[in-house]
Amino acid sequence: MITGDAAFSGSVEEFELGKTLFDEVIEYLSKYSDKKINTIVVPGNHDCQNLTEENKAREGLIKFAQDNGSEAIDRSDVEILSSMQSNYFAFAKHYNPVLLYSNELLNIYRF
Predict the structure, then answer these.
(1) The pLDDT of residue 73
(2) Does residue 19 lie within any of the structural domains?
(3) So what's the pLDDT on residue 97?
């Protein structure tokens, strides 16, 4: 399990560096154990790109969701809020197993 913050600021370059590191570790563990290494990636707060840039619309959606609960937001809100993780989603596809179901908030895998 790769438990978040594979990058510092969510840039493609940082994920490429992380991928190089994790690929080496996974290859080493696989050779050492003589077993296939299954992986799953979980995002962390640093896996979002452009978090340091002010984004009033995103901040407003987050506050609205916090004040009104998850039932007050719809799919379009989730798409906007999760768009800052597009680089992470591309990185995670490299490591996560067979995807059975996916949306911006939930992925179900088969190992």
Answers:
(1) 87
(2) yes
(3) 82
Q: Would you say residue 61 lies in a domain?
A: no
Q: Is 78 contained in some domain? A: no
Say if 87 falls within a structural domain. yes
The strand pair at 107-110 and 98-102 is best described as antiparallel
Domain that holds residue 104: 2-52+83-110
Here the tokens at position 92 are: 């995670």
**Angle made by CA atoms 88, 51, 74, in degrees to the nearest 5:** 70
Q: Can you spell out the DSSP letters for 39-101? A: --EE--GGGSTTTTS--HHHHHHHHHHHHH-GGG--HHHHHHHHGGGHHHHHHHHHHS-EEEE
